[in-house]
Amino acid sequence: MRRLFIATALLVAVIGAAMGGFLVARSRPLPAAITQQIETEMVEVVRTNLVQTENLNGELRYRDQRQVTSMVAGVVTRLPEEASLIERNTKAYEIDGSSVVILYGARPAWRALHEDVSNGADVRQLETNLVELGYDDDLEVDRDFNDETADALKQWRDDLGYSDDAVVEFGRVLYVPSPVRVGEQLVEVGDRVAPGTPLFEISAISQEVVVELDPDDFDLVSEGAAVQVELPGGDQIPGTVTGLGRVVETDPVDSERQFIEVRIELVRQVAGLDRAPVEVEVVSEEAVDVLAVPVRALLALEDGGYAVELASGTLVAVETGDFAEGLVEVRGQLEAGDRVVVPK
Length: 344
What we know:
Structural class: mainly beta
Helix content: 10-25%
Oligomer: single chain
Radius of gyration: 33 Å
Strand content: 35-45%
C-alpha cells in the first residue's frame, strides 16, 4: 500500500484554503484587506533533506522454511516441540519407535550405508559428521566405506544407545545444513504415515522480512537499500534489502496477482514472532541539501506558478520541487534563514 506525504492536488487544496480562494499577481504586494483577514506567523527558510517514503506490506518469518517428510512408512511415535532448536546428533523424531537423528550436510540420504555400498558422496558426508563428532581415530574422510568408517560408525551408534552394527538404515538420518528451528507440526503422534508425508516444518534460526512487491513498483527498492520495518506492536527496526527477485512469480491462490519477492535482513532478531505482518517503509524519492518552506507558505499566482511572502511584505517567485512531511523544496531568490509568512 503506497503512502505519499504530500500530493500536488493536496497542495492546491491547502493553498486555496489558506488564501481563502484569492489569487495574487506576481511581485504585487498583498492588499491590506486580505492580510488582515488571515492570521499569520513567520517561519524561517531551512536547508534540509526532503524524503518521500512509501509503505509496503511484508511478513516477518524465519529463513529457508521447508517441510520435513517421512522417508519410511510407519506410526509417528515422537515429534519435536514447536519453536525448539534441533542440532547435530539430536534425535529429532521417531517412526515406529526408531529415532531419526540430525546430521549436517547438503545432500539428502537416499540409501542405507554399510560396508558393502559403493563409493559415494553420501559416504563422505557421513564420515565428515563422524569426524566432527569426535570419532576420528584413523578415519580419513573420503568416498570409501572402509574398516575405519565401520569402526567409527559402530562407536557412534553405541553412544546413541543403538546396536553396534556398522550400518545407517535408510530413513534414520535427516541431513540439514546447520541447526534448525522447528516450526508447525503437520501430523500428530500416533498418526500412520507413508513415505513422503509431511511431518513438521523447519527453518533456519535467523529471521527475515519478505515483501511480495508489485512488479510495477520494482524501482522502489534496490539491494543494499536501508529500510524501516514496523512490527505489529508499533516498534520499528532498521533493515537492509539483501535480496531482490529477478523472476516475476504468480500467487498460487490468486492467479491474477503477480509479484517479485524482496528479502530484508533486520539489525536484530525478534523473539516470539513468526509469519507476522509488518509494514516496510522505503525511500521513494529524496532531495538532498535543498531550501524548503512549509507548504502553507506558498501563494498561487494569478498568471501561474507560486511565490512566498517575505517578512518585509515582498513577494518572491519560486519554483517548487519535492514535497515531504509538510515541507516543499523551493528555488528562487531565497536564502536559508530568510523569514516567510505562513498562515496559522
